[in-house]
Amino acid sequence: MEHKQFNYQQPFLLESGVILPRVQVVYSYFGTLSPTQDNVIWVCHALTANSNVEDWWKGLVGHGKLFDPTHHFIICANILGSHYGTTGPLSVDPVSDERYYHNFPFVTIRDMVKVLDLLRRELGILKIHTCIGGSLGGQQALEWAIMEPDLIENLVLIATNAQHSAWGIAFNESQRMAIEVDPTWQERRPDAGHAGMKAARSMALLSYRNYDTYLKTQTNYNVEQQDHFPASSYQRYQGDKLVKRFNAFSYWILSKAMDSHNVGRGRGSVIKALAKVKAKTLVLGIKTDLLFPIEEQKLLASYIADAHYDEIESLYGHDGFLIECPQIASLYKSFLTANIKIDR
């Protein structure tokens, strides 16, 4: 996999009206772009992931996998506001010559997608065979299909929605409240708010999983034990794991961006916006998903003209989009086969 950097040296206007003086984008790709550009697989990543899609979606991407660099040109770009090289809160503001930290402006999913499209144009990619994403990645993929209706041939939306729900926003706000009470949060340093982010990640995990997940994987079977339970240590482990690779500023910014997601903004309504999608669309819901319940995916499939809906069985709730790769691969292959038959 190749790792590259694209520097957009012109002012970039955010949806809020704020201007970023310039934008840097870190992206990864592997495989070879075909002469007809009919093999582009563009992966949109979720909240704390990065452009190294082979690392976090290894069940779908790699040699011998569903998206194979032998046949496909696979690309994933780190999103605006994130931690892994694309312009974000730890970047240096060229105006002040200091890191942004708390001064990094509010961004939306639409802003992220505009940056992705700048990169796409820079690379000369005129057509995307498949654009795929789960969760916040699915929000980006959907927004892109609406903004550029003729760009994407096949759209795969997993465990995502057209408008972020009050339930999802409440989870995100609770996590931000945990960061706020960290006494270091107001300091201008890369590790500010880390203790709060540990607690935030623990909260988030409860929405990513469900009762049965914890019952199956974290139950204590020692009837004499009174403290230090597996579920307790697991929550702390997940918080510790995240602070080793992420920062609270990006966590804050990206959770706010997720809250902003509403494809109907400026387009009359969600239904009118979904009607703009021309891509053949596979919508996948996860039956046990508490954060993005299947009603949200069914709505997408109901109002996107050429959409097929299917469901994934998973013990792991929302995190099933990262874990249940064999099911996703099987459903995607069936979707493509059905479309080929229809086209003929």
- Assign a percent range to the helix content: 25-40%
- What count of domains describes the coordinates? 2
Mean pLDDT: 97
The secondary-structure element order is EEEEEHEEEHEHEHHHHHHEHEHH
Low-confidence stretches: none
> Largest sheet, described in full?
8 strands, mixed
Structural class given helices, strands, pairing?
Answer: alpha/beta
Fourth CATH level, the homologous superfamily of the largest domain: Alpha/Beta hydrolase fold, catalytic domain
| DSSP helical segment count | 12
- Largest sheet strand order: 1-4-6-5-9-10-11-12
Q: Which CATH class of the largest domain applies here?
A: Alpha Beta
Shape: globular
User: What kind of assembly state do the chains in view correspond to?
Assistant: single chain
- Rg: 20 Å
CATH topology term of the largest domain = Rossmann fold
Number of strands: 12
CATH architecture of the largest domain: 3-Layer(aba) Sandwich
First and last CA, distance: 35 Å
Q: What portion of the residues fall into strands of 2 or more residues?
A: 15-25%
Enzyme class: transferase
Active site: 135 (nucleophile), 289, 318
Binding site for substrate: 201, 319
Family: Belongs to the AB hydrolase superfamily. MetX family.
